[in-house]
Design brief:
This protein is about 25% helix and about 40% strand. The protein contains 1 helix and 5 strands; from the N terminus they run βββββα. It has one helix at about 55-69, and strands at about 5, 10-15, 20-25, 30-40, 50. It has a 5-stranded antiparallel beta sheet with strand order 1-2-3-4-5, with helices on one face. The longest helix is centred in the C-terminal third of the chain and has 16 residues, at about 55-69.
Length: about 70
């Protein structure tokens, strides 16, 4: 799977899936990074979230691998 960085906080692959990076303040005003996953064709604003870019990419890769099996 090939990922293109669209801008500083967004990646897209050849299938149209997207990953968006967000910085969220927790209850103690500590910055937490989340990666929101949006699978191409889904109507929900996001399909899942992770705490690392690698994990987000693996989730989307696993989804495509499952469909192709």
């Amino acid at each position: 799977m090939y990922w293109s960085k669209i801008h500083a906080d967004c990646w897209c692959n050849e299938f149209g899936d997207e990953i968006h990076r967000y910085e969220i303040l927790d209850d103690e005003d500590q910055c937490q990074v989340e990666y929101h996953i949006h699978r191409a064709g889904e109507h929900l604003p996001w399909s899942g979230k992770t705490h690392t870019l690698d994990e987000a990419q693996r989730q989307l890769q696993h989804g495509h691998d499952t469909l192709m099996a």
